What we know:
Elements: E1 3-8, E2 46-51, H1 66-72, E3 80-82, E4 88-90, E5 93-98, E6 104-109, H2 123-133, H3 146-151, E7 152-159, E8 162-167, E9 201-207, E10 211-216, E11 229-234, H4 238-246, E12 252-254, E13 258-263, E14 267-272, E15 276-282, H5 292-300, H6 304-311, E16 316-317, H7 342-352, E17 358-364, H8 368-382, E18 387-393, H9 395-404, E19 410-416, H10 421-425, H11 442-452, H12 457-473, E20 477-482, E21 485-490, E22 493-494, E23 510-511
Parallel strand pairs: 2-11, 2-12, 17-18, 17-19
Antiparallel strand pairs: 1-13, 3-4, 5-6, 6-8, 7-8, 9-10, 10-11, 12-21, 14-21, 15-19, 15-20, 16-20, 22-23
Helix pairs in contact: 5-7, 11-12
Amino acid sequence: MKYHRLALALAVVMLLAGCGGQTPPPASSGEEASQIEAAPQAAPDRLVIGIAQDFDSLDPAKIAAAGTAEVMYNIYHGLINTTPEGKIVPELCENYEVSEDMLTYTFHLRGDAKFHNGDPVQAEDVAYTYRRMMGQTEDQKEPLNAELAKNIKDIVVQDDTTVLFELNQPSAAFISLCMVGIIPRDSGGDIGTHPVGAGPYQFESYSPGVGISMTRFEDYYGQKPFFPAVDFKIFTDNTTVQLALQRGELHIMKFEESVFSYDESKLKLIKQPQNMVQMLAFNHEFEPFTHLEVRQAVNYAIDKQSIIDFLSPGSLKIDTNFSPVMSFYYNQELENFYPYDPEQAKSLLAQAGYPDLTFTVKVPTEYKFHIDTAQIIQQQLAQAGITMKIETIEWNAWLTEVYTEHNHEATIVGLAGKIDPGSVMIRPTSGYNRNFFHYSNPEYDALVAQAAAEGDQNRRAQLYKDAQKVATQDALLVPLMDPGNNLLMDQHVEGYLTYPIGYIDLRSIYWA
């Protein structure tokens, strides 16, 4: 029996649906019985996929965690979608039009899409979904998405299949916001406990800490998925995962960092790039980090490549607040802007008056990869006289304390990428409600705003590159890597597609 040693890295991500599913290849025929070593293994009625964390919400308008989104986009579909190559394509709409001044987006809905309750997807449902996110419905008086509330001036329903969005200012990035899951009109009060979407799978059940189950939606307008049902089960122990995979009780699993042997006759490994930035993020309102020299010192004191080599060999090193996976927008000129130099770090700390810098980093407990990263960084910083204390907190607490309330000195986390660069670059802008960096730089804000209103994609890309340069020179954060995404799966599983944003597309997966 052949075994392979595997060093596995965490995969954390958001993500959305892509193209339609694949059909499995036809079975071979005409073979002699003596040539067949064993009968083909029958496909399971339920595909079982392991996930590392619980769900932060089942309501598409409230989902913040990439690990939740990559699952729930099988239940919810948006107006548009993305291909594995990152191209934006229609989903619940047949097509859309953008006015020359980029102030009006018109969507023409497809006529064959149905919600899981049997109702057709109509323009009133789209309008309700967005008005609810803007805090303009009876069941939702406060905005759930500040960006949409700020960008949308009005929503006009022309007829059952045509809806217009009128914007307050030109926005090339608005189309990327149209991936949010559409829900039936007036369903917001119940959607968090009884999800109803228009995706290829419909909600069956959810148990906190255990997982979620869904069944194939037989009236789905696209190609029907292969598996009648899918269970996403939460696993936090690699030993349990290993046993479940070997026994065939688990078919696909993304892993936290770990090393174990697996049977290559039963399992196979897929390594895929992500569109993610793992980072040590500063809170710029924490006194020492108000000083540029201190932030620069921490950058010089960290050896990124050694962290990658130890925890996730082959992962992409990152030197800006943007991933190289989206190469068209990535500023390659900034690579190795802060080379590993502990002596330079000491010198800068002395200049800033913090020769014995001490700070605490909050790291989510569920992500062992981030905890391991923190422990290595802790040792590296000590070489420059910096004391970094590690505080582990549960993921839901991280979402509250760090992501929402900004109650931290620093944190280590991975932020999932988006298909539109503006959704990544907007995060550190001073007006963004989830700017947990507490970063404020008018030059950076202006570049990101200009890019969002720029229709020429080459010019837009250059503006984002310029913004990355400003943020890097300002030592916004310590970018570390785009962690390699590692999946171990049953040898019979085929058709798993990878996207520039985190998404487990059940439409393409089949049993061979």
